[in-house]
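Input/output pair, single chain:
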Amino acid sequence: MRSGYAMPVKDNVCPDGEDDAVVSDNDLLAAVAESDRDSFAVLMKRYLVPMVALAYRIVLDREQAREIAQEAFLRVWKHAHKWDPDGSATFLTWLRRVTTNLAISRRRRFRPEVTLDAIEDLPSTYTDGFYAVAEADNKRLVEKAMAVLPERQRAAVALYYFDELPQAEAAEVMQLSLKAFGSLIIRARENLKKALAGSGFEKGDAS
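Output:
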C-alpha cells in the first residue's frame, strides 16, 4: 500500500475458526473493529480482486488499480469501528462506492496515457445485448473507447455492464437517483457507440 502498511492475506481464516464462507461481512467488520487481522484478511480474500477490476476499468492502469483497491481496504481497516450494520447500504455497496470514488479522483488527478494491452478479464459479452466482444482486437478497441469517456460515465459503465449490477444498485454505489444514473448510462452508451464506430468496431448492437 502507498502508506507502507500491508495486511497479510491468509486462506480460510476467520473468527473462532469458522468457515470464512459462512461468516457475514458485518460479523467480519465487527471483528476488524477490534483489530482482528484474520477477519480483515477474509474480507480482502472476498473482495480485493473485484475491487482491483472495478478500479482498473475506470483508471485503465493496472498498478494504479491495485493501489486504489488497497487504499479502499485501508479505509476499511481504519474505519471499521464506524460501520453501522443496520445502515441503508451493504458493506459491498459501500466498498464499491469508495473504490469508485477513489478511482474517479485518481483518474482526474493523473489522467495517464492509455495503454492498449489486451484486457484479460474483460467479459466476452455484455448484458442486455450491449456488445459481443470475443476477440483480442475488439477488446483493445473497447478499452480505447472507454478511455474517451468522462470519469463518471466510465464508472457507470464499469458498474452496470462489467459488474452487471442492477441500475438501482449501481445508482446507490454512485449516490445518484435512479433517473440520474439512467441518464448517465444513456450518455455513456451513446458516447461508446460513437467511439467504437470511429474505431471500426462492427460486432454487436448497442440498441
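The chain has two domains: 7-113, 119-207. Residues 14 and 38 are 6 Å apart (CA to CA).
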